[in-house]
Amino acid sequence: MKVSKRIKAIRKEVDFKKEYELDEAIQTLQKVSKVKFTESLDCAIKLGVDPRHADQMVRGTVLLPNGTGKVVRVLVIAKGVKAEEALAAGADFAGFEEYLEKIKNGWTDVDVIIATPDSMAELGKLGRILGPRGLMPNPKSGTVTMDVSKAVKESKGGKIEFRVDKAGIVHTSVGKLNFESNKLKENLIAFLTMIMKLKPSSAKGLYVKSLYLSSTMGPGLKLNKETISILK
Question: How far apart are the first and last CA of the chain?
Fold first, then answer.
């Protein structure tokens, strides 16, 4: 198999057998990024949980202190005054019947949908469209709420949602590689802090089994967990 110049250059800079300290891993990924777009910094964490059991499902949200670096398009399904509040808070779209009809016809050109509790009876009927795209509002993630203004500002300001997959892995992005390295570190620490807070009481043995950082098109670097105090 032919190896590109970019991959060859990465292999010269990266030691794949090494366990990196957090700062070094971030700076290494920033250094070897040579693609023509701004990559994201991704984190994959293997947890010692069995997601088949409801009491070991790790799922939550966290507000990244330095944002995600992404433009987040927010739709709020609400009536009257609440729709007006959402637009005033920065929502890209807000309304009720007109947007239910658009979604019913296949429109899902948004990143987050927030809904008031009284709108969920109708919105819930569109689960077959929204569910597979991860767009269905959920009280646990704060996207079913009467405080639409707060929810919009958090979604625009860097709130991310995450959940463990069937293999026991949580994967998420914590910012863009063109952020200052210390800001990426702050975002990652905020995410890991929340992961630790959500440790199920029924989980036995080692909770955090392994932790990797990677960029969108870059290598995956294993982190030395012993050097990250929040994981101890």
Answer: 42
Q: How large is the C-alpha radius of gyration of the chain?
A: 20
**CATH dotted code for 16-68+159-231:** 3.30.190.20
Q: Considering only CA atoms, which of 2, 19, 32, 53 is closest in space to residue 217?
A: 32
| C-alpha–C-alpha distance, residues 195 and 62, integer Å | 9
So where are the chain's domains? Answer: 16-68+159-231, 74-157
Q: Rounded distance, CA 110 to CA 62, Å?
A: 20
> If one looks up domain 74-157 in CATH, what number appears?
3.40.50.790
Task: Dig out the tokens for 193 from the structure.
Answer: 């802090």
Distances (CA, A) of 48 to 2, 116, 167, 195, 201: 38, 35, 10, 12, 12
Q: Is 192 helix (H, G, I), strand (E, B) or coil?
A: helix
Tell me the per-residue pLDDT of 149-207, one tens digit each, with 9 for 90 and over. Answer: 999 999 999 999 999 999 999 999 999 999 999 999 999 999 999 999 999 999 888 99
For residues 66 and 93, the answer to whether their CB atoms sit within 8 Å is: no
Q: What parts of the chain have a pLDDT lower than 70?
A: 1-3
